[in-house]
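Now for a chain:

_____
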Amino acid sequence: MKESPRQVNTPATKRQITCRNKDTEQVHLIVGAPGLKLDHEKIYVMQIINTILGGGLSSRLFQEIREQRGLVYSVYSYHSSYHDTGLFGVYAGLSKQNVDEVLALIFKQVRDIQVNGVKEEELHRAREQLKGNLYLSLENVNTRMSRLGKSQLYLGRVVAPEEIINKVNKVTISDIQELAKEVLDPQGFSLASIGPWDDCGSLERTISNLL
């Protein structure tokens, strides 16, 4: 007999700024917000947004902040989905003196997707990247079994690769802009950082100025 996944309530969240002092050469920071749970109808829209924004060497964040400006050692975005909730985040590893500028650029790119959407070539590239990653994952036994187990545990069924590809292909530019406005509001972003901080005051002022 097929057993349905356990139903739980989505946890409540609120915006927070947290920093920890550590004697390191660079600052590590993450800005993020609640994402989408695994069975959300717009999960593949979210994955494409993540790919365009910071999911690879051709992404907006990597190209502008790392390649063009050289302000970070590393920058990327990610989206993790679970049974009852999800997490969207942007990570950056950088020198302390670049924090204000990098946060401003991250927020700028998020807002640009909300206001102006994305280009057709960006959508096409993101689609192909997601599909390529899926095909490659099928060649690795551990990755394949992990995907099947997660799908069964969280969704109560196995999602076929063909279903994923079909849904990825149906994502439109308007879908992306609509979801970005709904989920990626910088007003709701939390921030966590570790590095040579005396206190969180400067981070809090930076975020307040950006909002």
